[in-house]
Amino acid sequence: MHKLNRLKNLAKEHPVIIFYLVTFLISWGGLALLLGGPDQITAQPTKVPFLPLYLITVSGPCIAGILLIGIYHGTEGYRKFISRLFKYRVNIKWYAIALLTAPVTVFATLFVLWLFSPEFLPGIFTYGDSPVASSFGLDGSNKMTLVLFVLLIGLFNGFVEELGWTGFVTHELRWNHNFISTGLNIGVMWGLWHLLSNYTGSAVEAGNFPLPLYLGVLLFSFLPPFRILMTWVYAHTRSLLIAILMHASLDIFWILSMPNVLTGQQRVVWYLAWAVVLWMVVAVIKWDSNRKDRPKKRTFQ
């Protein structure tokens, strides 16, 4: 009984850790079951349909966030959660930052790389079949269909994921951390959470490039700094709606910008270069924040 009470107290004191555990259990456990067991998880293409794999993965943070808000904060927690979800009255500049950070940084990165190699031209600006569209079973040559589909999936993905990542975790961590440490904490776990779903079938994308290194760059290069920027925006808006839109923008323009033909090594170059751009943005924001806060240091509250 003493050990049980101790576990309960630990759970009460560490809601973020509990969120991570529940999220990974749902997403990774469900993915493994759909694939037929842990021994069926492979980097080779799978015959299991994409849709159920996708839905079980994104359900993790959504279910964990909604469930734990009730457990830790009860009815009042849900009331405040709904208020943040529908908070749309914020300065227009935060809408601009949320919607434009992803396209500006990713397209700028690709166009600079394109100056050195034509393969880096963003896929949305090229002719021919899009491998992204083909992977979803769409007409690879129909750009309008691709854009509409990606728009819908981006908004859906941003909605279900941010109910947990921002709606619960960011809101819990914000009391004792600044936006850099909060965003880095979530960003690393966000990348790790993508590991199993991105590992499945990743051998084709990686090609001859070492798979562990490829996945490491994919998951931990641009995702952490982008999450830091999301946390910074949330710190100034307290709007879950804005976080959802910023996440949706990342997914939409990441997919639409993806060049049609890249080797594993070229993808790594792209992701690392994009990460450098995002980290530069983070550095500028941090410098500006420190300049404004002197001599008093402000925390993320």
From TrEMBL:
Mind listing the GO molecular function terms for this protein? hydrolase activity
Spell out the protein name for this chain.
Answer: CPBP family intramembrane glutamic endopeptidase
Note one Pfam family from the annotation.
Answer: Rce1-like
Chain segments annotated as transmembrane: 16-38, 50-73, 94-116, 144-163, 175-193, 213-233, 240-256, 268-287
Q: Which residue numbers delimit the CAAX prenyl protease 2/Lysostaphin resistance protein A-like domain?
A: 145-252
Q: Which domain of life is it from?
A: Bacteria
Keywords (alphabetical) are: Hydrolase, Membrane, Transmembrane, Transmembrane helix
- This entry's Enzyme Commission designation comes to 3.4.-.-
| InterPro entries for this protein | MmRce1-like (IPR042150), Rce1/LyrA-like_dom (IPR003675)
